[in-house]
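hey all, quick one before standup. I had two proteins in the batch that finished overnight and I want to keep them in one place so we stop losing track of which output belongs to which input. First protein below, input sequence then structure tokens straight from the run.
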Amino acid sequence: MRQKIVKELRVNEQIRAKEVRLIGETGGQLGIVPLVQALQIARERELDLVELVPTSVPPVCRLLNYGKYKYEQAKKERKLRKGQKTGLLKEIRLRPRIKEHDLEAKVRMIRRLLEDGDKVRVSVVFRGREVVHPERGWKILKKVMEDVKGAATIDGSPTVEETNMFLTLLPASRA
């Protein structure tokens, strides 16, 4: 089910006020006129009378093509929504026995994600007997922190949960 993007406004006969403040299609004030006269002007110009500010006294109405207006408003809202970035959290998983070159490749990936503006969660995953050597995980996380020092800030301290060790990095521009 799709939600409506544009709020519905009262149009033409739906307007309940006796008098309205009328604004022309170019944006110029036409003054306060009776509703019947405003509807007549709208019909003559083949436009709709749209109540833009129902709370004012008298309500503000404008002459415009309502279908086109709704389309433009929906288009603007979609464009704004498209431009919003919702601080994505990306995760990079490492192992305690990762080799130096592989770690460098992962650090490059972390830097790229941070430059794109994403939060990065670095996790060291322990399997089996690796759990008895948590110092290896700390060593890897320290190495990652040193390598991304200029591009990131650390969000909190590294945490341990069961067989995982986590570190969250924020882009330097955000902090």
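OK second protein, same deal, sequence then tokens:
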Amino acid sequence: MSHPAGDFNHDGVYNIVDLTDAIARVFSGGAGPFCQDEADSNGDAVFNIVDVTFNISRIFAGGAAPVCGTTGN
């Protein structure tokens, strides 16, 4: 199965569940992403609050499509 960029929970679908999992990680120490590169929605090789805001923009406002990071993880 192919996993899209932004697929924080690695279930093969990029959707609001990925956003909520990412928010939980950033704000309350929730579980980490299955794959760091998939979680890195804006492709800057770091998973952080910027990826959460990127996902909010994509899901709710039609923002740019996610791109995989390049950390190698």
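Flagging for whoever picks this up: The helical segments are 16-28, 36-39, 49-61. The chain is about 40% helix and 0% strand.
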